[in-house]
Design brief:
The chain is mainly α. It has seven helices and three strands.
Length: 202
């Protein structure tokens, strides 16, 4: 997604070789789901209950099942949801330099979540959800679009940084998913015991 025309894809560290020849669909799916797992565990430890990189159909890829805390206020939960949604794309770009499968669905989810923040939660000021005639105006819609795009770019950078800080955990999860297809909560905890997750506070 373009970030005000100045967004640059993250560069992998020198010791992380990018081999596009091995970036087959299964590898992309594995890293995509590992990205979601890493961000989920960073924003809320223990949130991932089940994850799979197993292809269920020609269109469907893997999945991560879990839940963010119901104790979090609605705005905080939506922020977490948006960042986690962007993590799959960030992970495959970090490893392979390409976005991979499942990105459109994730980006649509992140977009809807962030736009709802501005329209429903007084996010960024009362003007975005004013009950006056301005609420349906073209100027308001353009303002919301611009604010949504800016916030999505901010959340994308947060996801990228979090994955870099938790690279050991991310790679370990990707390796296990590649070998086993399915991970349970106990598997995630076992990996965290060896590769502690650096928490992310939004």
């Amino acid at each position: 997604m373009p970030c005000n025309g100045a967004h640059v894809q993250p560069k992998c560290e020198d010791d992380l070789e990018i081999d596009l020849t091995c970036a087959n669909k299964d590898s992309l799916i594995t890293w995509h789901e590992a990205g979601h797992i890493t961000l989920s565990e960073a924003v809320l430890p223990g949130s991932v209950q089940l994850a799979s990189s197993r292809r269920r159909s020609k269109r469907n890829a893997g999945f991560v099942q879990g839940s963010l805390s119901a104790e979090q206020d609605r705005v905080k939960r939506r922020e977490m949801d948006a960042v986690v949604s962007l993590a799959g794309k960030a992970a495959t770009e970090m490893r392979f330099g390409v976005a991979g499968d499942g990105v459109r669905e994730d980006l649509n989810a992140a977009y809807r979540t962030v736009r709802d923040l501005f329209e429903d939660e007084y996010y960024g000021g009362f003007g975005f959800c004013s009950p006056s005639h301005y609420s349906a105006s073209e100027a308001r819609q353009q303002a919301i679009e611009a604010a949504t795009d800016s916030k999505l770019c901010e959340f994308e950078r947060i996801a990228q940084t979090c994955l870099q800080r938790n690279r050991g955990f991310l790679e370990a999860v990707a390796d296990e998913l590649a070998n086993r297809d399915v991970l349970l909560a106990a598997d995630i905890e076992r990996i965290k015991a060896v590769h502690p997750v650096v928490p992310l506070a939004l």
